[in-house]
From TrEMBL:
Name under which the protein is recorded: Uncharacterized protein
Biased composition (Basic and acidic residues): 7-20
Domain of life: Eukaryota
Disordered as annotated region, ranges: 1-20, 46-81, 175-217
Organism name: Chara braunii
Sequence ranges of Acidic residues compositional bias: 206-217
Composition-biased stretches (Basic residues): 46-55
Length: 217
């Protein structure tokens, strides 16, 4: 036995009512769109298209060429961008190498002005001067100085201490200072009454020579 289907006052089922409401909503939206379209058309018809004023050719002033305005949206090609990057890289490399050479040259000139004395307190003064010089260097200059002295660069303070120690040892280490040559042979010869460079005769030869001289007399 079939169950009775519920209907509303318009004798419509729920499914029929939904379909009717969908159609009404679609018609209302279409009507609103048509009204908006008509309103825009009326506004467009009332507008007047004005042609943009065109500029005449640029007149050259003196020897300067006329100014050319680049077109909008103009982009560089991939090859042009690569070429620009290569030029920038090569120029930066040249600048870096020249700056490093300039830093090394300045460091060498500065070290020439730091002289090691031989009086009391000269070693401490030389060490203080070297410390002041190396502390004034930048990181790149300090690394270049370590490379020149063949010293490993770890921390800045340690590198400065090693460089100062190396300079002090080079200036005051007795191994690096040449000792004067003493004329020991000349002193011995003057004591024995012989000429420098002559060989000393044994005592037996000297006595034989004296006996021969006495017999000849």
């Amino acid at each position: 036995m079939k169950q009775p289907v519920a209907v509303d006052e318009r004798s419509e089922t729920k499914a029929e009512e939904k379909e009717r409401l969908k159609r009404e909503i679609a018609l209302a939206e279409t009507k609103e769109e048509d009204e908006e379209l008509q309103r825009l058309r009326k506004r467009a018809a009332s507008l007047r298209i004005t042609e943009k004023r065109k500029r005449g050719p640029e007149a050259s002033i003196g020897n300067s060429p006329p100014m050319v305005t680049p077109s909008k949206g103009q982009r560089l090609s991939t090859e042009a961008k690569q070429r620009i990057e290569e030029i920038r890289y090569s120029q930066s490399g040249k600048l870096d190498s020249s700056s490093l050479l300039e830093q090394v040259r300045k460091l060498s000139l500065s070290m020439k002005h730091v002289t090691a004395g031989c009086g009391p307190g000269a070693r401490e003064q030389y060490e203080a001067d070297c410390l002041e010089l190396f502390e004034a260097l930048t990181v790149d200059e300090l690394k270049e100085a370590c490379k020149k002295e063949k010293i490993g660069y770890g921390k800045r303070e340690v590198a400065i201490k090693r460089l100062v120690t190396r300079r002090v040892l080079q200036a005051y280490d007795p191994i690096n200072v040449p000792l004067p040559v003493t004329p020991s042979g000349a002193k011995r010869s003057t004591k024995t009454g012989q000429k420098p460079g002559s060989k000393a005769l044994p005592a037996s030869d000297i006595s034989d020579d004296e006996d021969e001289d006495s017999e000849s007399e």
